[in-house]
Amino acid sequence: MPIKLAFQDEKLRTVCESPVSAKRKYGEVAGRAIHSRLADLRAADSPLKYVEWGFGKFDETAHDRIVTPIDGGYRMLASANNRPLPGEPGAVDWAQVTRVKILSIERANES
Fold it and tell me: Which of 66, 81, 86, 106 has its CA 20 to 30 A from that of 97?
């Protein structure tokens, strides 16, 4: 089953759903990469697979987030969006996550 995506806000949804908007806001390289990574995320059976494929990594500072490097000096932050989260408190069972929320796209050197 493909992963279902949600977005932090309407502006982010527009960028993530429109290649033209993404390229306008982040440039040609990053805009194309954003849409490629989102397609990869949707194609994965779980965020665990997405990370195993090498597209992202689990955030070391937040147990429920994934960080995806984006070409052009950006990164995309996403979180598990299942309610309740599968797994033990503080330890998400990423293999069981079916919903992901895109939180932000920011410069890679920002926090």
Answer: 106
State the pTM of this model. 0.92
What are the structure tokens assigned to 74, written together? 């950006």
Give residue 21's identity as a one-letter amino acid code.
S
End-to-end Cα separation, the chain, in angstroms: 32
Residue type for position 68? T
- Model confidence pLDDT, tens digit, residues 77-98: 999 999 888 988 888 999 999 9
pLDDT digits 0-9 by tens, 37-75: 999 999 999 999 999 999 999 998 888 999 999 999 999
Structure tokens that stand for 92 in this block? 């998400």
| DSSP conformational letter for 95 | G
Other beta carbons within 10 angstroms of residue 60's beta carbon come to 8
Question: Do 15 and 34 meet the contact criterion of CB atoms below 8 Å apart?
Answer: yes
